[in-house]
Amino acid sequence: MSTKSTQNPIHLIWKSIILIILILSAYKMAQIAFPYLVPPYPTNIDFLESKESLFKQRITERPFWLIAFYIHISSSVFVLAAGVTQFSKTLMFKYPKVHRLIGKWYIILILFVAAPSGLVMAFFGNGGVFAQIAFVCQAVFWWILSYLAYIYILKGNLEKHGAYMMRSYAMTFSAITLRAMSAVLFWAQKEGYHDVGYPESYILLAWVSWIFNLLLAELVLYLGILRYYFKTHRTS
Description:
Number of strands: 0
Helix content: over 70%
Radius of gyration: 19 Å
């Protein structure tokens, strides 16, 4: 039995780097969400404070949006963390029951909690109508790609299930990409590298943050990432 792929030190280093990035990103999302979820649930900080300016009224006067917000940020933390585990080959083949259980909760949370609440929020996104269209598209594609991942595993098509799970997680990870790109854009503006102001810069980020992730997922799929998971499994 050949174990060359598991013994390749460069391969192992890359796997470790990617895993660390994903884990730290899930931790960062939890760190961002935590202040909003601690009683008395403040609405005068960061994201919610910007919403009060956008709505030109107190955010607490729009309870349906506020409920969607709390549901979305709390569920998204679990979705980000659960999604990381789904790309562990060890968990997938040595502990398939654990893999399937976490995967079910990942899909359930997206289809019934995170994506629908994100869609509600999208209609009131910062940046105006063009940014709102971007966020609506993001929520809809997130739901569709996650649903297709579920459908293909029911049909027993592991390759297509894996491909759509990767696309689904690319959409999940766009929350992190948006914040990372926002920080880079803010730094570039501060250093004088560009003078694109708000809302144009935010509209750009609203689209690029998830389209970039999807294109990256397609590139990884094109380069044959699925062979890493399924070739060894099929011939063992």
